[in-house]
Design goal:
alpha/beta; 13% strand; 2 domains; 38% helix; 403 residues; two-stranded antiparallel ribbon; 16 helices; globular; nine-stranded mixed β-sheet; TIM Barrel
Length: 403
């Protein structure tokens, strides 16, 4: 017989689990929605078209007129999208657009991808990470001793409304020139201390297979480069990009690490799950870098469900980023105090595998700072605390303010 204490403890844990279990059950009951058929009809497209990443990229929806034709949106919403889109470029793949439930303005995919009037508020900075002054050569950003970023394009399958590099989006897709990339490779060769290279943009997987193959070949040819990482949202916004051919290119240059950005459980679909599982089963190591976004995912239940679902598709929750102070994105901001309180609820309620590291990027590109509950205890009565970067630089923040 099991003793009374064990049975009572089990009963208490079942009670603790109930609220999240009820949320998850309700979430699954409301999942069945997609405007895929509407979009196929609009474009006169076939299923084969839909499964083609080049078709998805070519047929990105890029203006308010298309949205009004598709969803018969109110005039005020049309004007808002048009006005904001004229300042900050707008594009979304048919696939990612199809995930917006009833084209609802409160939908998490809508909020991440459709222009909103709050973007016109002149709050924030164009380059809060100070990338301009951390660009020693070519397309490189260097903020750490042993690793660099290579920004190969400004193109994305969908332009996120919270993008940290929206200053680079411009009006047209613009891939880095061969000479710019060669200058980047030469810099890495001349600095043997650099062992880790992150390829990003924009989104590097909007490049052709041959261009990706060439970049990976050039980097793999540098003997001191040990790790190659790719930052991409295509598994989320255009999972059709993860083709057998692309996977074979990754295999050829293995090991390849891919970090993606799922921000909400609704983004984990049959298609995105298949893309991630195919990558993982081919030997690619997958991590997720979520961003806390007000009204999108700044919610404990969303966070726990997202991380658990990611593990099911072989994606390790890696980072949660606190929102950066990017101009036009203030409406996504939450306080550090709020973020920590949400984040700390994960501990004990789910396994350590489903708990990423919560990160604040220090101003001016001074590096990542880990956020945790100790910060709440150490802040003064007004919410101020001085933290140190990895180099020992001090930065004073207010955990209660909206950055």
């Amino acid at each position: 017989m099991f003793n009374k204490a064990s049975l009572q403890r089990s009963a208490n844990l079942t009670i603790k689990a109930k609220s999240f279990f009820d949320y998850k059950t309700e979430y699954y009951s409301q999942l069945k929605h997609s405007s895929k058929e509407l979009l196929l009809n609009y474009f006169g497209a076939t299923e084969n078209d839909w499964e083609s990443w080049t078709w998805q990229l070519k047929n990105r929806i890029t203006n308010a007129e298309q949205l009004k034709e598709l969803f018969d949106i109110p005039q005020y919403e049309y004007e808002q999208i048009r006005k904001v889109g004229n300042k900050f470029r707008f594009a979304i793949t048919p696939y990612y657009l199809s995930l917006i439930k009833s084209f609802n303005t409160n939908d998490p995919v809508y909020l991440q991808s459709i222009p909103q009037s709050e973007e016109l508020y002149d709050i924030g900075e164009a380059d809060p990470m100070n990338e301009l002054n951390n660009n020693p050569a070519g397309a490189i950003t260097r903020r750490y001793p042993d690793r660099v970023i290579v920004n190969v394009t400004n193109s994305c399958a969908a332009f996120c409304r919270h993008c940290q590099r929206r200053r680079n989006i411009g009006e047209f897709d613009n891939h880095k020139s061969a000479s710019c990339l060669e200058e980047s490779y030469e810099y890495i060769k001349k600095h043997p201390e650099i062992r880790d290279v992150l390829i990003t943009g924009g989104d590097s997987l909007t490049l052709s297979d041959s261009a990706i193959d060439d970049i990976l070949f050039k980097l793999r040819s540098i003997k001191t480069v040990e790790i190659i990482r790719i930052g991409t949202r295509t598994p989320v916004t255009m999972p059709q990009r993860i083709t057998d051919r692309l996977i074979n290119i990754f295999k050829k240059h293995s090991p390849i690490y891919v970090n993606t950005q799922f921000n909400h459980p609704v983004e984990i679909t049959t298609e995105s799950a298949r893309a991630c599982l195919n990558l993982a089963d081919s030997g690619v190591v997958l991590g997720n870098q979520m961003v806390f976004l007000k009204d999108v995912n700044a919610n404990y239940y969303n966070l726990q469900l997202l991380n658990q679902l990611l593990l099911k598709i072989k994606v390790r929750p890696y980072y949660i980023f606190h929102p950066k102070k990017v101009i036009g994105t203030h409406h996504f901001s939450i306080s550090i105090e709020e973020g920590i309180k949400i984040y700390e609820q994960l501990r004990g309620n789910t396994s350590g595998l489903a708990i990423p590291t919560y990160i604040l990027n220090a101003d001016q590109g001074l590096g990542k700072i880990v956020l945790n509950k100790e910060i709440l205890q150490l802040a003064d009565v007004k919410g101020f605390i001085t933290l140190k970067t990895w180099e020992g630089n001090k930065t004073t923040i207010n955990i209660r303010s909206i950055r």
